[in-house]
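QA checklist item 7 of 12: single-chain prediction sanity check.
[x] sequence parsed
[x] length recorded as 558
[x] structure emitted
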Amino acid sequence: MNARQPSPIDAIAEAHTTRLAEMCPVDATFMGIAGHDHQLNDYSPDGLAAFAQLNRDTLGELAQATPVDDTDRVTLAAMRDRLELDVELYESGARHADLNVLACPLQNLRDVFDMMPTATADDWGNIASRLRLMPQAITGYIASLRDGAARGLVPARLQVEEGIKQAADLGDPETSFFVELVANADFNAVPIPDGLATDLATAARRAAQAYDELTTFLADDLAGLAPTDDAVGRDRYALHSREFVGARVDLDETYAWGLAELERVSTEQQRVIEQIAGSGADMADAVRVLDQDRSQVLQGTEALQRWMQETADAAIANLDGVHFDIPEAVRTIECRIAPTETGGIYYTGPSDDFSRPGRMWWSVPPGVTEFATWREKTTVYHEGVPGHHLQIAQAVLNRTQLNSWRRLASWSSGHGEGWALYAERLMEEFGFMNAPGDRLGLLDGQRLRAARVVVDIGVHCRLAAPERWGGGVWNAAKAWALLQANVNLDEASLRFELNRYLGWPGQAPSYKIGQRLWEQARATANRKAGASFDLKAWHTKALNLGSVPLAVLSDALH
């Protein structure tokens, strides 16, 4: 494909991305934009205001711009959607009440260190710089939460209480991640200048102290103001749903669809359960049968990491040239055991120059030493190929056609997570999930994602719960009952799942809703093209767009 001549709209997007990286260095590190690894975001009210103003300024420039081709038209639509929504969220006060159990500054300031290289003295110098800035970043974050509270915008009590636990763990002077990061470093293998080790140790202790101060603020100042009601209400929820799905959806229709989809997947899963364990069997029976096959059980994290890598590499080899044309740079994925212990499995994209490869991370909870491959093969496809790795790395690589904002900064959960769920089903369609255990694992994940739609919309929009789940209005207790009946997770993991939904409205349903919209887009394209429909070509066209809001995707693919 010939290189595209950059347009004035591309220039606006490039300038915006440059300023975004300067104002949000943590985001820049996650995006793989070099040059900002020594800095941290300004999470203070002034910092939040400055970022909102950047978005307003860019929107003003875009309003004066004229697209020159289809690529420009997609860029213009996608940037308007994302930037206008971000300004709307800022003006609603949502950015001043940004506290939840999974994805807010409390976690981001810690997690960004997982993305930073440690191979050279300069790398450790960047880490030292970031650690030194941690007290300032935490102080700014506290100021924003305090500002939100003054306006009556306080996260729910559950999120504050869980935030206190997480902050206290990071603030422990002996066991804080920051302290251990430096204490466990091998400075014999990576020689560093005289004094840097001392500077690192001092900065790490002060970073831990900053989290201790955050713990005190959350416990002494914010917890007493926090509402006990987990629901954010329909108006706020609609805003967050647009943020994560990347399209407006009818919340009542989507909730009803979620209930029907949960029933449909449950019925499909029951058929597989009985195929494995006999008529009338339940999930526990099927698990016992499958776990008796010790060839499908891994012992220890080293075996897990090897299996992840082998499975991911095999998917790339089997799909390349058949169902997808996978560029050379994208054929490398690195599978790692995460330094955290939350139980999450996630993907981080490659750096802009691919010096940092795309990575699949598995965060193993304490004490967990056995892993059933039948449960997790679908997850490797979700995070790897044809899921997130193919989707994200291919967009990063597409610099001859897309500007940096499209390649690196644009992200819509409905598009990205929806594609990854769609990719799981693709592997079933392509014949890679024929083993009953693998199909059971796939359906187990799909059932969880359908349950999320029901719980998330039901609780936050205060909808009526079916009598089967307690009747009346949805609340956390009824949501817990539904999850226990439908999700095959241990109690601690399931509780974390529910806490996540309660504190991060609109995000969890975006997976299944996004999958639905991807499947609808494919069906529409298939119907229009008829016998000439080429699935491989359609996937290539869709992936080459990068991550765009799903409302934009549907127009771009027609």
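[x] summary fact logged: The chain has two domains: 8-228, 243-510.
[ ] second reviewer sign-off
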